[in-house]
Design brief:
single chain; alpha/beta; Rossmann fold; Dihydrodipicolinate Reductase, domain 2; 3 domains; ten-stranded mixed beta sheet; six-stranded parallel beta sheet; 31 strands; 36% helix; globular
Length: 740
C-alpha cells in the first residue's frame, strides 16, 4: 500500500507537469489499484542487483568487463526521462544497482587502481543513430553516476569477506519485501582460486538466501584442464551453489551470429531438413588469430590450443549447428537436453583424426619467460569430429584453430554435396548455377573479409528468413575483398547484424535475465571433456610454422576421417641426406648417412620417427603390389612399444589402402585377455584397427581366451591358430612380417 501511495504521488506530479488535473492523476492511479487488486497477486515493481566482480582490477575486468557492465547499466535506464535542462534518470522498471570490485590489493592501492580503470577504460560510446532519446552530454553524466556507484573491496581473509557480506546484507535490508533482490558474483580470477573464494563467501554469507536474495555465480574458463579436474572442480562448486545458480561463461555464446544460429535454423525449415548426411559434405568450424600468446604465455603453455579453444569455443559452436532443434527454443530445459544428447553422440577425438603445429618463435618466448617443456604445446590444431547419429554419420566436422595465422576470423561453414544430376533439357538450365558453385551456408562470426557479422546463404537456395536483430543486405561493400568463401558476394543472400553487440554485454544481460541456455551446464562440461580428454593427454607430433604461415605448411586434406598435411615432412625422398652441424670454431661438420646391409639385406638406419614412417610406407607399397597381383595381402605384427608409432602412421597416412583385401595376424601374444592393457592385440586394435575400414573377418587375433579358460594348453590355442594360417594364407606364407 505504501508503495502504491508513492506511485500515486509520483504519477500525480508527472501529470501536473503535463497540465493534467489532480483528479485525472488520482483516477489513473485508482484504476491501477483496481487492476492490481483483480490480478490476484502483487507484482514486484522494483529490483535491486548487487554485482561483485571478483578480480575486478585484473586484465579481463580491465579490457572487457567494466565497459560491458556500464553498457548493460546504460541500457537498463529509461532514456525518455533524461532531460538536458533538469538531468535525472528514472530506471525503466525501477531497477537499481550496486557495484563492487573485489581484489587482493590493499584498500588504498585498490581504490587507485580501480579509479584509473573506470576513468580511462570506460567510454560513453554514444551514437546518435542508436538511440535518439539520449544525447552525448546526458550519456557522460550517466557514466559519472555509474563510476560513483562502483566501490573497491579488499578480499584477503575471512574478516574481509565478513565485512563485505555485512555491507551487502545491509544494502538489501533497505528495500521492501516486494523488491526482487539478487546478487551476482562474477569470478574473473584463475580457476584455482575459485574454491577458497566460494568457501569463504559461503561461510560468511549464510543468510542471504534466507533473506530471499537470489544468487547467481558466473565462472570464467578454463573449467579444468582435463575431465578429472573438471569433475573435481564441478563437485566443489556444487557443494556451495545449486546448478540453477551457476553460469559458466563461454563468451562466444554471447556473439550475435552465434546467438542467431538456432533461430535461423528454426526460421528456415527448408534448410533445416537438408542439414544431414544425405546433403552435407562437411562442416568447417574455424577460429583463427593473427596474434601470438604474448603476455598469456605462462598460462597458455599449460593449456595449448586444445584446452584454450577446441574443448570450449569450437565444441559449443559445433553443438549449435548440429543439435536437433527443440520444439520451443525458449524452453531452457529442452535446449539443454538436446545439447547433451548431441554431446553423447560425439566420438572421442583421437590423434589419428588430428594435426598439430606450433609457431616458430614460441620457443623463444619460452626462454624469455624461463619456461621449459614448450615442445609439446600446440598453438595450432585441426581435428575431425565424428558424430555417431543417423543424422550426421559420415559427415566430418573440421574444427580448426591457431595463433599467428594469416588472418583473424571465425566462422562456421556448412558445405553441401554437389548431388544435382541433369537428365532432360539440360541445355535450357543454368547448370553452372547448380553444379559449378558450391552450395554453402556460412555463419560469419567476426573479423576476416566481412565488415559485419553476417549469415551467408548461397543463392542456389531460396531467400532465407533473417532472425531478429538481422536484416537482409545487398550492400556489396560489406566485403573488403571481391571473393568471400570462394564466391563473389553477389552469389549469396546476406543477413547482416543490425548492431554488433559486444559479447560480454550479451553475457551480462543474459545473466541478469536468467537465460541459462547461453551458458555451459555441468553435464555439458563433463561430456565435452569426454570428447577431448584422450587427445589432450596423449603425445602429439607438432609441426613448426612461420608467422602467418607464408608457405602454407598448415594446409591439409581430408581422407575418410583422417587428416594429412599437403606438404609431408616425413616423406623419405624429400629428407636431406646430409646433416650440417656447427663446430666450436664456427666451421661446419658434415655427416653423411652411408648405405649398409645386414645378413645380405638392406639395412636402414635413422631416428625412430623416420624409421616408423619408412616402415609404414614400405608396408603400404607392398600391400598395393600384392593386392593388385593376387587380390590379398597378409601381414603379421609382433608386440612391443616400438610399433605404436608405425600403427599410428598407418592409421593416419595410409587409411585409404584397400583394407578389405588386407588380413592382419599376430606374431606373438601375452596370456592376458584382449581387453587388458598388456595385450598386444589391445594395442593393435586401439592404435590401428579401429581407425581403418577392415572387415572383422580379416582380423585374426590369437585365441588366448577360449571356453572361459585363459591360455589353457589342453584347448590347443596355438595349434588352432596354426591351422587358420594354413587354411587362409595362400601357400601358408605371409606376405609381410613385422617383428621387433
Amino acid at each position: 500500500v505504501d508503495q502504491l501511495i508513492r506511485n500515486m504521488d509520483t504519477s500525480k506530479k508527472r501529470f501536473e507537469r503535463a497540465s493534467m488535473s489532480v483528479m485525472t492523476a488520482f483516477a489513473y492511479n485508482l484504476t491501477f489499484l483496481i487492476l492490481l487488486a483483480t490480478a490476484g497477486s502483487p507484482v514486484p515493481n522494483s529490483q535491486h542487483t548487487v554485482l561483485i566482480l571478483v578480480g575486478g582490477t585484473g586484465d579481463l575486468a580491465t579490457k572487457y568487463l567494466w565497459q560491458s557492465v556500464f553498457d548493460v547499466y546504460l541500457s537498463s535506464l529509461d532514456f525518455g526521462q533524461i532531460e538536458e535542462s533538469n538531468w535525472r534518470q528514472t530506471p525503466l522498471v525501477n531497477h537499481t544497482f550496486d557495484f563492487y570490485a573485489a581484489g587482493r590489493s590493499h584498500q588504498n592501492k585498490g581504490n587507485v587502481i580501480l579509479n584509473n580503470i573506470l576513468k580511462t577504460g570506460i567510454t560513453c560510446d554514444y551514437n546518435e543513430g542508436d538511440n535518439s532519446k539520449i544525447n552525448a552530454h546526458a550519456c557522460e553524466k550517466i557514466l559519472t553516476n555509474f563510476v560513483n556507484k562502483v566501490a573497491y573491496v579488499m578480499l584477503q581473509n575471512e574478516e574481509d569477506f565478513a565485512v563485505l557480506c555485512s555491507v551487502i546484507t545491509h544494502k538489501f535490508s533497505g528495500f521492501p519485501s516486494t523488491t526482487v533482490k539478487e546478487l551476482i558474483m562474477f569470478m574473473a580470477i584463475p580457476p584455482n582460486a575459485y574454491e577458497i573464494v566460494l568457501h569463504r563467501f559461503n561461510e560468511q554469507c549464510p543468510t542471504l538466501r534466507q533473506r530471499n536474495v537470489s544468487i547467481k555465480l558466473a565462472l570464467e574458463k578454463p573449467f579444468g584442464l582435463d575431465k578429472a579436474s573438471a569433475e573435481t572442480m564441478s563437485k566443489k562448486v556444487l557443494s556451495y551453489f545449486e546448478e540453477e545458480e551457476i553460469y559458466r561463461v563461454d563468451h562466444y555464446l554471447g556473439k550475435p551470429v552465434v546467438k542467431a544460429i538456432l533461430p535461423f535454423r528454426n526460421l528456415n525449415p527448408d534448410i533445416e531438413q537438408i542439414m544431414n548426411t544425405d546433403y552435407v559434405e562437411r562442416v568447417e568450424i574455424f577460429l583463427k588469430e593473427t596474434v601470438g600468446v604474448e603476455e598469456r604465455f605462462d598460462v597458455y603453455n599449460t593449456m595449448g590450443v586444445l584446452r584454450d579453444i577446441h574443448q570450449n569455443h569450437l565444441t559449443q559452436l559445433l553443438i549449435l549447428v548440429a543439435m536437433d532443434l527443440p520444439s520451443d527454443l525458449s524452453n531452457n530445459i529442452d535446449v539443454q537436453q538436446n545439447k547433451e544428447r548431441l554431446l553423447k553422440q560425439i566420438e572421442p577425438v583421437s590423434r589419428h583424426n588430428s594435426l598439430f603445429g606450433q609457431y616458430e618463435n614460441y620457443a623463444a618466448n619460452a626462454e624469455r619467460h624461463e619456461v621449459n617443456g614448450t615442445d609439446t604445446t600446440p598453438t595450432f590444431a585441426a581435428s575431425v569430429v565424428k558424430i555417431n547419429s543417423p543424422r550426421w554419420r559420415s559427415v566430418p566436422f573440421l574444427l580448426v584453430s591457431g595463433k599467428q595465422l594469416d588472418i583473424r576470423e571465425s566462422y562456421i561453414r556448412v558445405v553441401f554435396k554437389n548431388n544435382y544430376v541433369c537428365v532432360s533439357h539440360c541445355e535450357d538450365k543454368k547448370l553452372e548455377d547448380k553444379s559449378r558453385h558450391a552450395k554453402q551456408i556460412i555463419f560469419h562470426i567476426g573479423h576476416g573479409n566481412l565488415k559485419w557479422p553476417s549469415i551467408l546463404v548461397s543463392k542456389s537456395f531460396k531467400a532465407p528468413k533473417c532472425p531478429n536483430s538481422f536484416q537482409e543486405s545487398s550492400d556489396f561493400k560489406l566485403a573488403t575483398t571481391s571473393v568471400v568463401y570462394g564466391e563473389v558476394l553477389k552469389n549469396f543472400f546476406v543477413c547482416a547484424v543490425l548492431k554488433d553487440m559486444p559479447a560480454y554485454v550479451s553475457v551480462l544481460s543474459d545473466i541478469l535475465i536468467g537465460r541459462q541456455e547461453y551458458f555451459v551446464s555441468t553435464s555439458q562440461l563433463i561430456l565435452s571433456w569426454q570428447v577431448w580428454d584422450y587427445l589432450i593427454n596423449t603425445s602429439k607430433k607438432i609441426r613448426l610454422y612461420e608467422n602467418s604461415d607464408p608457405h602454407d605448411r598448415l594446409d591439409f586434406i581430408v581422407k575418410m576421417s583422417q587428416l594429412e598435411y599437403v606438404h609431408n615432412d616425413n616423406d623419405a625422398e624429400e629428407m636431406a641426406e646430409e646433416l650440417a652441424v656447427p663446430t666450436h670454431n664456427g666451421g661446419m661438420h658434415t655427416f653423411k648417412q652411408t648405405s649398409a646391409s645386414f645378413l645380405g639385406q638392406k639395412l636402414i638406419t635413422s631416428n625412430s620417427d623416420h624409421l616408423a614412417f619408412i616402415l609404414a610406407r614400405d608396408i603400404g607399397r607392398a600391400a598395393v603390389v600384392d593386392i593388385q597381383s593376387k587380390g590379398s595381402f597378409h601381414i603379421a605384427f609382433s608386440g612391443g612399444t616400438s610399433l605404436h608409432k608405425v600403427f599410428q602412421i598407418l592409421a593416419q597416412s595410409f587409411a585409404n589402402l584397400h583394407w578389405h583385401s588386407i588380413h592382419v595376424w599376430q606374431v606373438d601374444e601375452r596370456c592376458v585377455p584382449h581387453h587388458d592393457e598388456r595385450s598386444n592385440f589391445q594395442v593393435l586394435d586401439r592404435e590401428l584397427l579401429r581407425f581403418v575400414d577392415i572387415p572383422y573377418s580379416n582380423i585374426h587375433a590369437m585365441p588366448v581366451y577360449t571356453g572361459g579358460r585363459l591360455c589353457d594348453p589342453e584347448l590347443g590355442g596355438a595349434h588352432v591358430y596354426a591351422d587358420s594360417l594354413r587354411h587362409i594364407v595362400p601357400n601358408s606364407q605371409l606376405d609381410f612380417i613385422v617383428w621387433v
